[in-house]
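# nightly structure sweep
# worker-07 picked up a monomer target from the shared queue
# config: single-sequence mode, recycle default, output format = structure tokens
# input follows
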Amino acid sequence: MVAKGLLVVALVIGWGAPVCAEPIRIAYSGVSASGTPVWLAKEEGLFAKHGLEADLVAVRSAPIQVSALVSNEVQFVRGSASSMLSAAAQGAKLKIIMSLFAERASYDFLVAPAITKPSDLRGKKIGVQDFSGLLWSLTMLSLREMGLDPQRDNISIQAIGDSTVIAQSLASGIIDGAALDKLQSARLQTLGVKPLLDLSKIALPSSPFMCAETFVQKHPQTIENFIKAMIEASAFMRANKERGIALLQKYLKVDRQLAELGYKFLLDDLTSYTFVTPKGLKTAQDIIAMRDPKIVKFNVEELLDQRVLTKVVKSGYVEDIERRYKLRS
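# output follows
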């Protein structure tokens, strides 16, 4: 009878499965292809598999993301390194724990059909999500690369909404330019919008995951479980094309053809894991310094704590999970 009882318990909870999942909240800044691994981890039960009960929340404002992290209203943010760097330089105790994407800006700076050269942007309007996040940083970087200055050249930079709203505004002529990801770029080019600058050769952290420093210190096992779930989500995404395409269609509201293109772009940048580097953060710091020169005094390495990621990588977990998904022999 005892043996039978143990068998029943094993069947109910599963050998090695967590009896009680730990609740966490994950904030993300907007709907884009780079959010796919997080949505996949939720829908495919990968967070639950690693002992986490994840609630995903959209928080588009970088200051609210920071406030939510510091107050422990959310435990993880997938967002902009630039926003977190600005907040950390002002005293917020934050840490970047990992990324899943290659450290480059896979974005285009797009312009309205009537614009043919950088100087045509003088006196025009450019859309961003806010004045500290990734799209703002890429916009400022683009203008610098093209020899333009917003004040000198009378360029109006307007915070109008997330990337979806920005794309719609550019297509309808409400704004004249914007930095958007490669999928949005491909879609808008069918409507006559043109890429004026390819930003993909610039080293910049892409969609890193961040936590409050106190949370990292007090909950290393939760950090480890989260990292393992995200590494598995990346493997799942790379091994299951149809599931990836379906997620892109669902969340980005695009047709099959664009979703297939989006999946291709995603695979160009999606990695097993990525260590965010001081070099990439220094690029972000240089951009922010155009608005806030005092930030150059901040040591960007203080924003990094990737010790748990190092532990997971050294354990052989990545190789094991990728063999399971037949990504390596």
